[in-house]
Design goal:
heterodimer; A: 114 residues; mainly beta; 48% strand; globular; B: 110 residues; 11 strands; 0% helix
């Protein structure tokens, strides 16, 4: 099993450009998440999904959109990138089991917006 | 106020030493608690869950103090491989959402 994979691993964008980050998991997890991690701050939840076809806003959703058309994939879109979106983006997934919430993370995408 | 706060460190300790650090959380309704480990420029991985009665996993001991709203992690007999950032993670409300602290960095030197 590959676990959680993310594409791409690195990207440099210019302000105003758009891009999509792809997250894929092969563990049949119900829940999937997108986080961003900035220096000195904890991981902050951008958007999450509790099942195929569903998405919800997290703590810092502005400037991002997501889609979960297939259970195994969770896409994060930046429509018009801004320098404030320079960050490391992590995707994660977890089982739907009450009281147990180990989240499995992908290797991250390092995004720089110039 | 942040939901989860940690001393960022770094804690620099020699091999074989014991190191301990805490994390505080603000929401008294928090249900579940975890320590995750994150190596430099890598993804976080679950180290251990934290139970009300406290629990051990080899050289690692986690404690929960609900009255004072903090959890702790103690590492005994530190190894070079323990050098990492340790993230305090708290579940608040819905089972599937976690709040992460910014992390405590531990560096173990030979």
């Amino acid at each position: 099993n590959a676990g959680v994979t993310q594409t791409p691993k690195f990207r440099v964008l210019k302000t105003g450009q758009s891009m999509t980050l792809l997250c894929a998991q092969d563990m049949n997890h119900e829940y999937m998440y997108w986080y961003r991690q900035d220096p000195g701050m904890g991981l902050r939840l951008i958007h999450y999904s509790v099942g195929e076809g569903t998405t919800a806003k997290g703590e810092v959703p502005d400037g991002y959109n997501v889609s979960r058309l297939k259970k195994q994939n969770f896409l994060l879109g930046l429509e018009s990138a801004a320098p404030s979106q320079t960050s490391v983006y992590f995707c994660a997934s977890s089982y739907r089991v009450s009281g147990i919430n180990e989240q499995f993370f992908g290797p991250g995408t390092r995004l720089t917006v110039l | 106020r942040k939901e989860v706060e940690q001393d960022p460190g770094p804690f620099n300790v020699p091999e074989g030493a014991t190191v301990a650090f805490n994390c505080t959380y603000s929401n008294s309704a928090s249900q579940s608690f975890f320590w995750y480990r994150q190596d430099c420029r890598k993804e976080p991985k679950l180290l251990m869950s934290v139970y009300s009665s406290g629990n051990e996993d080899g050289r690692f001991t986690a404690q929960l103090n609900r009255a004072s709203q903090y959890i702790s992690l103690l590492i005994r007999d530190s190894k070079l491989s323990d050098s990492a950032t340790y993230l305090c993670v708290v579940n608040i409300g819905d089972d599937y959402k976690l709040s992460f602290g910014a992390g405590t960095t531990v560096t173990v030197r030979a």
